[in-house]
């Protein structure tokens, strides 16, 4: 896999789309138009780590799509642990430390029939970057949690090492500490509470709502602990 290092780019995901039809890993010092899920902007100032991986597949059934998320999130969590932090995954694609978001993941898949033909996995990790004041209650950085600055290059190297490995759904669930707890699910129809029970193999969140087990897909809801 080719590794490309950039000082500045609009979005590492968008760079992958433009760069060519080959497997690559792209990192940037800063992004000018970083993207989050559901079309949100993602603050991407210098001091953070912004990474996208583009992979092409010949036969990757869409039924296995959640494994892409599993591998990305677990790799980030393993990286956090290496530097002494205790990460928690907030379904489906956020990594928290101390109850605050420290990394987000954006996956953009292309399809050919019932198969995924290409996947671009974008990750933004807050390391030494200064967060806007309005995010102080919901987001954090590795340096803030550890009380000291870190080498972005060392974090990058550790993340790339972990991204080269494969993980399973159980390893993903090992980083979830809120099963059995009451959660708030926010949907287009409003908010309701539920008891989180499990994450299915396809990534659906299993929860108990009014005494009934219900499966929630990532496309339908966001989750707030």
Weakly predicted, low-confidence segments: none
Oligomer description: single chain
Rg calculated over all Cα atoms: 17 Å
Q: How helix-rich are the residues, as a percent range?
A: 10-25%
Structural class: alpha+beta
Using the alpha-carbon principal axes, give the shape.
globular
Number of strands: 12
Q: How do the strands line up in the largest sheet?
A: 1-2-3-7-6-5-4
The largest pleated sheet is described as: 7 strands, mixed
SSE string, helix = H, strand = E? EHEEHEEEEHHHEEEEE
Please tell me about this protein's structure:
The chain is α+β, with helices and mostly antiparallel strands and 225 residues long. 21% of the residues lie in helices and 38% in strands. The protein has helices spanning 12-19, 66-82, 142-146, 152-163, 169-173; strands spanning 2-9, 24-31, 49-56, 87-90, 94-97, 100-112, 115-125, 182-187, 190-199, 205-209, 212-216, 221-224. A hairpin with a 2-residue loop joins strand 6 and strand 7. Helix 2 packs across helix 4. The longest helix is centred in the N-terminal third of the chain and has 17 residues, at 66-82. The radius of gyration is 17 Å and the shape is globular. The termini are far apart. The model has no long low-confidence stretch (mean pLDDT 91).
